[in-house]
Recover the amino acids of this structure.
């Protein structure tokens, strides 16, 4: 089998992804399969934010709000909260649609803003959504306030619920594994959609706006529509991911949608490599796995080294996380795996003067 | 086929103020299909402001603006691009981190249709359109003579090549009127000469050209008609020979012969 043949490589990747939960399960234990599930949810989120930040260049600090909209839509329509138990295939798309609408609602008033101003307004929007979720329990109880909504229906199709283990093809497959496959499917779909958008007329328009909005509009791009499209697409991904999250956890509360979460997703995009799908996926994987590894590893490691737990693993985790961020930004400002375009953008300017010299002496024209 | 005498762009009594400064007042001009129309004037005369108005980047305060028979006052830039006015910028505004080819492909945006659904479905029509966009972009790079740089980032091109790339990108929008804001600025004599040939080629391909230029020699040898702005007012209009000997024009250019005016400074406002 020749590995450099794309078809063969895809086959190999597919095989690895298929057996991955079993490998993780046997090597690290069941808990890590759950972490892998979360990693997939975050990758979807990061890919959605990548459309807004990476392609269109619009800094959005309230992105987690769309995740919240998707999650609460699922929670309210599939839990004892209102006694509604709508089918998943209705609730998930509805959550995505609502998130998309919220994306446009947020986008519309910020169309004239850029950079810092846009960041601040979107940050405020994210907080508004969270505060609403927190306070919509009186006078009429809708969201159950800070207690959140529990006993949410598991993800299911008809009677087949992946909230429990199943006997499939003679294999006993646990709920976590089933979620892994479902989330993997959605993630691959999101990757495919991102790739198609990136290499399309719309994708080019997003990048043109990122590069120079005035020139883009003079070239006939309706900057308002194209920006709203970016917000809407990004929010849709967030909404889908949110719905899956609610079904997976069985519980949602406003706490899960804090500013810190928005920043975490942004870090995945920026650290991994803005505008590059592979980089964003890498960022998502790393930022889910590394903190968990610290959480599990830091205590025992300190025991072994110093005979006692000197620093609380939780604070050590944040400390190392901050340090890692600084190091990456110092050494690889365009991210760990940047898009070809971003790499060029953030690289020290290839001396234009030198280029100019070359062309002066180039009489081949 | 349009006849030369058709009016393509007609401006009447255009006024534009910035606070207390009247950047343009009572400016009227009409540009005929198929000509190369020159716009000259000292620094700060309002030439770029006029471009910004006809491309929708600024809104006019007074006057009327007709293009190809329809009125376009207070329209968004993309509407005017769609109507058929394309431009280049005095301070080059390329998509710096996109390749030359991608820059021109963006120019095709306004004449193509694939939306989000087309991109997602990636159907036959979308793929055909993408291929056509790329093909046309290659042709245009060839047309302006920088095809061998198609995969170079715009910001790594030489100054003259960037100016040509801006022209290719503007032509990609299939304009009826191409407005060039000092395309020869910063070019040497040889480069200017080949730029002149390029502009003739553009005119011969059926595109009307509106040209701002400080290089009077270039204007005289190229333009069918010339208008002169000074302090926001039109002080002369006519064939180049006429304008060159117009006393008001000579006075505007520091009382001397109309020769090389001082180079403009880069980095101001839009354009
Ligand atoms: N956005 C703006 N805000 C305030 N003043 C402006 C703005 N744009 C242009 N002006 C002023 O309007 C006047 C005309 O400027 P404009 O750029 O149109 O001149 P120009 O003829 O293109 O000159 P140059 O040859 O230097 O390019 C100048 O005094 C300029 O300072
Ligand atoms: Mg100017």
């Amino acid at each position: 089998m020749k590995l450099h043949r794309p078809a063969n490589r895809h086959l190999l990747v597919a095989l690895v992804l298929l057996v991955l939960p079993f490998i993780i399960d046997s090597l690290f234990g069941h808990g890590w399969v759950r972490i892998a599930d979360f990693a997939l949810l975050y990758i979807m989120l990061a890919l959605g934010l990548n459309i807004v930040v990476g392609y269109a260049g619009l800094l959005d600090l309230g992105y987690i709000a769309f995740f919240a909209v998707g999650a609460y839509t699922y929670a309210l329509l599939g839990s004892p909260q209102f006694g509604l138990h709508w089918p998943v295939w209705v609730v998930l798309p509805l959550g995505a649609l609502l998130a998309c609408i919220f994306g446009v609602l947020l986008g519309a008033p910020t169309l004239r803003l850029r950079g810092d101003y846009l960041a601040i307004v979107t940050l405020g929007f994210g907080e508004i959504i969270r505060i609403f979720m927190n306070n919509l329990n009186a006078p009429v109880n809708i969201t159950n306030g800070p207690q959140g909504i529990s006993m949410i229906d598991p993800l299911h199709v008809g009677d087949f619920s992946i909230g429990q283990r199943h006997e499939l093809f003679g294999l006993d497959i646990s709920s976590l594994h089933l979620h892994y496959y479902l989330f993997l499917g959605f993630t691959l779909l999101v990757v495919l959609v991102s790739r198609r958008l990136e290499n399309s007329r719309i994708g080019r328009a997003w990048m043109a706006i990122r590069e120079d909005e005035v020139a883009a509009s003079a070239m006939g791009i309706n900057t308002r529509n194209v920006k709203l499209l970016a917000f809407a697409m990004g929010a849709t991904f967030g909404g889908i991911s949110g719905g899956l999250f609610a079904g997976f956890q069985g519980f949602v509360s406003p706490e899960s949608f804090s500013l810190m979460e928005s920043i975490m997703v942004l870090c995945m995009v920026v650290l991994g490599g803005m505008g590059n799908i592979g980089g964003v996926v890498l960022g998502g994987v790393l930022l889910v796995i590394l903190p968990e590894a610290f959480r599990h590893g830091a205590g025992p490691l300190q025991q072994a080294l110093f005979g006692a737990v000197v620093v609380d693993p939780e604070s050590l985790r944040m400390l190392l996380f901050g340090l890692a961020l600084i190091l990456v930004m110092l050494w690889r400002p365009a991210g760990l795996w940047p898009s070809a375009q971003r790499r060029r953008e953030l690289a020290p300017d290839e001396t234009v003067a030198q280029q100019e010299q070359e062309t002066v002496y180039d009489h081949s024209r | 086929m349009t006849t030369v005498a058709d009016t393509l762009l007609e401006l009447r009594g255009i006024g534009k103020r910035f606070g207390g400064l009247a950047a343009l007042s009572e400016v009227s001009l009409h540009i005929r299909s198929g000509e190369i129309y020159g716009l000259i004037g000292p620094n700060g005369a309002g030439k770029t402001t006029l471009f910004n108005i006809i491309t929708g980047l600024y809104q006019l305060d007074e006057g009327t603006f007709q293009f190809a028979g329809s009125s376009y006052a207070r329209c968004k830039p993309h509407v005017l691009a769609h109507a058929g006015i394309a431009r280049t910028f005095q301070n080059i505004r390329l998509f710096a981190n996109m390749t030359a080819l991608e820059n021109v492909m963006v120019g095709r945006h306004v004449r193509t249709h694939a939306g989000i659904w087309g991109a997602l479905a990636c159907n036959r029509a979308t793929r055909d359109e993408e291929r056509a966009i790329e093909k046309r972009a290659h042709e245009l790079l060839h047309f302006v003579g920088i095809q061998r740089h198609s995969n170079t980032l715009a910001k790594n091109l030489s100054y003259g090549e960037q100016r040509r790339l801006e022209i290719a990108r503007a032509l990609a929008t299939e304009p009826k009127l191409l407005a060039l804001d000092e395309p020869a600025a910063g070019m040497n004599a040889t480069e200017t000469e080949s730029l002149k040939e390029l502009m003739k080629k553009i005119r011969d391909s059926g595109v009307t050209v509106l040209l701002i230029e400080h290089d009077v020699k270039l204007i005289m040898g190229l333009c069918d008609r010339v208008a002169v702005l000074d302090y926001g007012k039109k002080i002369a209009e006519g064939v180049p020979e006429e304008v060159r000997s117009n006393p008001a024009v000579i006075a505007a250019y520091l009382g001397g012969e109309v020769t090389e005016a001082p180079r403009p400074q880069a980095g101001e406002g839009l354009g």
Observations:
- DSSP finds 14 helices and eight strands in chain A.
- Chain A touches chain B through 39 residues (CB under 8 Å).
